[in-house]
Design goal:
This protein has 932 residues and is of the alpha+beta class. Among the domains are: 108 residues, Immunoglobulin-like (Sandwich), CATH 2.60.40.10; 223 residues, Galactose-binding domain-like (Jelly Rolls, Sandwich); 115 residues, Sandwich (Jelly Rolls), CATH 2.60.120.260; 106 residues, Maltose phosphorylase, domain 3, CATH 2.60.420. It has 18 helices and 49 strands. Strands 22, 23, 29, 30, 31, 32, 35, 36, 37 and 38 form a 10-stranded mixed beta sheet that branches. The chain has a 6-stranded antiparallel beta sheet with strand order 1-49-46-45-44-39. It is globular, with a radius of gyration of 28 Å. The termini are close together. Bound molecules: beta-D-glucopyranose. The site of beta-D-glucopyranose (BGC) has 10 residues, from helix 5. Its EC number is 3.2.1.40. This is alpha-L-rhamnosidase. It is an enzyme of class 3 (hydrolase). It catalyses: Hydrolysis of terminal non-reducing alpha-L-rhamnose residues in alpha-L-rhamnosides.
Length: 932
């Protein structure tokens, strides 16, 4: 092995470094933070080889001036020795509803960095929850009871005028809704979030958003405006309509009948006094141009009814009604139907018992997509192709006559004759309507209270062929900073990677959803646990999962089981649960801890996690693996099922192993022992029940082997090798000129390639990744996929969209489901070889795996790979390449304040197949190595 750039520690003390990347509770300058002791983190930047922190200091102040003057009136941590680049706030009580400023510096090699740039965050209600009353319109309409008729009410516009008594120096607003809302001050929108305040079980918890509105305030009279739509609270939700869940089986009004709004603005005057303007019965309310607005059904907008200046001074609201306290609409008891039967429940106002600051990055417009083509499959029907399947909305730009009706429909795919394919949307109508006002200058509209999963937009109602820029795609998702990159010599593989990242983006709408297009869009736990580690490679998902893990815990059943999806809007404290889905309660905290290094992801939920494991043990005291909940098993496998009991034994073992590891990280020795004992018992039961003397598993399926290997059922190296060989043989048996031979479903696919590599079948793993045959990721790419499909056979050349019996498309057939995209975890961790050796990548495992010289492949075997991940310590970048002379060129950049363990073969893999691996430690900096 030849090091082209030698490790050089001598320069360490000479080179300056900086302290940067300040985050608080996994967010960059958040608005709305109600943790009394938030976690503060930073990273080091600099070129010095071996750059490592020896101490840090944090200053926190109530104003920028004070911070700059070094007057830390809230907290001065003092010089604190240690390598950790994070700390919990330990200063004076943080002020409520106020901006807070902070900066940090670090020491390395005896030298202090300059202070970081000052950053600020705005606190929420640290001194208690918001106390403003929720208001509504007076709702006298009868409850919607017709399952077969759509009921789509108009959003409400709220308005309030106020005059601050003195000179305002600061104004901070907290707002929430039962429903989704947009807030305005003097005509200007507060913040840039979509769908605030997000989806929670509103009967247990709701979030409020915080805005610094100081700059939006005017002298004298001021106007607050807000629009509130049904959203998740009372709109059509998930598959409720399809399966007949919800009040009167309608699928809507799941949490309540009447949306409500809550706002409080905290004004601080120049004399130090303060005042709160809050929602109450003095606000006015009316309907506006939106005549309907629903997540699943779409939005309707009559531009002739626009109320110019409605949220600004001087607008005449005398015709508007008076708002009422939400509670005054009274009790509304209705029968609620779901899987567990019927129960009369309250659908009148219930104030959420817990109101907290929204803990994650909001959904934002992240990118705009220009249309790449327009087709006209039949006269007057124009289909815009945005070139990419995604989730979001469009900006419609057109010239129309007053009253002209334009209809927008959305689809992920087209039928062979060019028509929009909408069968797979099931009960989601996904149709927006715009009625023109007839502005000669043209008009522009974007729906605000709905979203769709789509690539194609069908536009009808135009008087002539619209131009390409009549439709622009707005890509929406939770604004988690993206953190990965992957490229290699095979363009199809690069597209697979992009497809997975796009599918994550399409499903990161406030929660990890299964799919963004059909009438589902739920936080399916099985999907989330399979994909969590991949998600954490592609984005900084700490804050995002901080939110969702609360929803997950809020949805735990009375028995203590994690549910099949979270939030769980159906059931009465009951929920469907099941093997591998419920395990999200253990697997997701573990995955997010590994990626971020922050143990709060399990310490905050430890009691619920322990209760779950005990409840599961109670129903299977001998730990044999008995059917647990719904029998999804290896969901969407290709006629190669794995028994439910087997899946349960595998996942129970995996969860017990992870619990043991997390218990150990907390120093809980007794619990470590307990879970280790369980694991030993389950392994023994596995050997007795499933393992044959010849090392095969009965009943046999590809996923049975994959799960035995991945979930820890098989620990003996010889037995593992046998299982891996048999797995490879099973894939081989089913492969052919038109078949890869893979049969695995959701559970088996994620660990398939990792387990093949781990048992000496790396070439097979690489060939599956690169295959264009059915079923494979490459088959999807070959057929035009820009996202990951729900099923291997979502579309086949043979059966089109309908599957073998022709009915699949109208039943369950999404083109944007991330579960199979979990192959990207293996692409980054194994093929490129970047993985956390310690939580948060403070120690990095660099261990690339190369296809061998005689790898057989349908196409040129991958000959180079380049990848990166933005870890909490900064970018980890690697690349490897088979050079012309057969040698291996390897390059890596290791970020400051970490170390990396690099494992490479002693001789180039293209010169000698079984060369011994050599491991060495790399210090922060850039490294270039040639293996001859
Ligand atoms: C969802 C899934 C989910 C599954 C569970 C489907 O409808 O889209 O991805 O995991 O149901 O059975």
């Amino acid at each position: 092995m030849k090091w082209l750039i030698p490790l050089c520690a001598a320069t360490l003390a000479l080179e300056a470094h900086t302290t940067t990347g300040l985050k608080i509770e996994h967010r960059v300058h958040p608005y709305g933070l109600d943790d009394p002791n938030p976690r503060m983190s930073w990273r080091l930047e600099g070129d010095a080889e071996g750059l490592a922190q020896t101490a840090f200091q944090i200053l926190v102040a109530t104003s920028q001036d004070k911070l700059e003057a070094g007057e830390a009136d809230l907290w001065d941590s003092g010089k604190t020795e240690g390598r950790a680049s994070h700390a919990r706030y330990e200063g004076k009580d943080l002020p409520s509803s106020a901006p807070v400023y902070w900066k940090a510096r670090s020491w390395a090699g005896g030298e202090a960095s300059e202070w970081s740039a000052a950053t600020r965050f705005v606190t929420g209600r640290i001194d208690g929850e918001p106390t403003a009353k929720y208001i509504s319109f007076k709702d006298e309409r009868s409850f919607h009871t017709k399952r077969n008729e759509l009921y789509l009410p108009a959003p409400r516009y709220y308005r309030k005028t106020f005059k601050p008594e003195k000179k305002v120096v600061r104004a901070v607003a907290h707002a929430s809704a039962l429903g989704i809302y947009e807030l305005k001050l003097n005509g200007m929108k507060a913040g840039d979030a979509w769908f605030a305040p997000g989806w929670t079980n509103y009967r247990k918890r709701a979030y409020y958003n915080t805005y610094d509105v100081t700059k939006l305030l005017a002298r004298g009279e001021n106007v607050i405006g807000a629009v509130v739509a049904d959203g998740w609270y009372s709109g059509y939700l998930a598959y409720g309509k399809l399966v007949g869940y919800g009040p009167h089986r309608t699928g809507r009004d799941i949490y309540g009948k009447t949306p409500a709004l809550m706002v409080e603005i905290h004004l601080t005057y120049d004399d130090g006094s303060s005042e709160v303007v809050a929602t109450d019965g003095s606000w006015k309310v009316t309907t506006g141009p939106e005549f309907e607005a629903d997540f699943l059904m779409g939005e309707g907008y009559d531009a002739r009814k626009e109320m110019i200046g409605w949220a600004a001074k001087g607008f005449d609201d005398s015709e508007w009604e008076s708002a009422v306290l939400a509670s005054s609409n009274g009790s509304v008891k209705q029968p609620f139907f779901d899987k567990f039967g019927k129960e009369v429940q309250e659908f009148g106002f219930i104030r959420p018992p817990v109101l907290q600051a929204y803990p994650a990055q909001p959904v934002r417009t992240i990118e705009e997509l220009e249309a790449v083509a327009i087709t006209e499959p039949s006269e007057g029907v124009y289909i815009f192709d945005l070139g990419q399947n995604f989730a979001g909305n469009v900006r419609l730009k057109l010239l129309g006559k007053s009253g002209q009706k334009i209809t927008l429909r959305y689809g992920e795919m087209l039928h062979p004759d060019g028509r929009l394919m909408t069968e797979n949307l099931r009960a989601a109508r996904a149709t927006d309507t715009y009625i023109c006002k007839g502005d000669r200058e043209g008009e522009i509209w974007t729906p605000r209270f709905t979203f769709h999963g789509f690539r194609y937009v069908e536009v009808t109602g135009c008087s002539q062929k619209p131009p390409l820029d009549a439709i622009t795609g707005l890509v929406l998702h939770s604004d988690t900073p993206m953190a990965s990159g992957f490229e290699c010599s095979d363009p199809v593989v690069n597209q697979i990677f992009r497809n997975a990242v796009w599918t994550q983006r399409a499903n990161w709408i406030d929660l990890p959803t299964d799919c963004p297009q059909r009438d589902e869009r739920m936080g399916w736990t099985g999907d989330a646990q399979i994909y969590a580690a991949s998600a954490a490679i592609h984005a900084d998902v700490g804050a995002f999962f901080r939110k969702w893990l609360r929803e997950l815990e809020d949805s735990v059943t009375k028995e203590g089981y994690y549910p099949s999806y979270a939030p769980y809007p159906f059931g009465h404290g009951k929920a469907i649960h099941g093997s591998a889905w419920s395990d999200a309660g253990v697997i997701v905290p573990h995955a997010v801890w590994k990626a971020t290094g922050d143990p709060q992801f399990f310490t905050n939920h430890w009691a619920a996690m322990t209760r779950f494991m005990d409840a599961r043990m109670a129903q299977d005291p001998l730990l044999k693996g008995t059917a647990f909940g719904a029998p999804w098993g290896d969901w969407l496998n290709l006629d190669d099922p794995t028994p439910h009991e087997y899946v349960e034994l595998a996942y129970f073992t995996l969860s017990a192993l992870l619990m043991s590891e997390m218990a150990s990280a907390q120093g809980l020795a007794e619990q470590v022992k307990k879970y280790d004992r369980w694991v030993a018992m389950m392994r023994e039961n596995f050997r007795k029940q499933y393992l044959q003397p010849d090392g095969t598993i009965r009943p046999e399926s590809q996923s049975a082997y994959v799960l035995a290997l991945d979930c820890g059922l098989l620990d003996d190296p010889a037995a593992r090798k046998k299982a891996g060989d048999r797995l490879a043989a099973l894939v081989g048996e089913r492969s052919g000129p038109n078949a890869t031979g893979m049969t695995t479903g959701f559970l088996g696919t994620k660990p398939l390639l990792p387990m093949l590599t781990a048992t000496g079948h790396h070439d097979l793993a690489v060939s599956l990744l690169q295959s264009r045959k059915y079923p494979s990721w490459g088959y999807e790419v070959k057929n035009g996929a820009t996202t990951i499909w729900e099923r291997w056979n979502s579309y086949t050349a043979e059966h089109g969209f309908g599957g073998p019996n022709g009915t699949m498309n109208a039943a369950m057939n999404s083109f944007s489901h991330y579960a199979f995209g979990a192959v990207t975890e293996w692409m980054v961790e194994t093929l490129a070889g970047i993985a956390p050796a310690e939580p948060g990548y403070s120690k990095i495992r660099l261990h690339p795996h190369f296809p061998s010289a005689d790898a057989v492949s349908e196409t040129d075997t991958i000959s180079w790979v380049k990848a990166h991940h933005d870890s909490p310590h900064g970018r980890i970048a690697v690349s490897w390449k088979r050079q012309e002379d057969g040698s291996l060129l390897y390059e890596a950049t290791v970020p400051p304040n970490t170390t990396a363990e690099l494992t490479l073969p002693a001789v180039s893999p293209w010169k000698q197949a079984d060369a011994k691996p050599e491991t060495r430690t790399l210090a922060p900096g850039s490294h270039k190595i040639v293996v001859e």
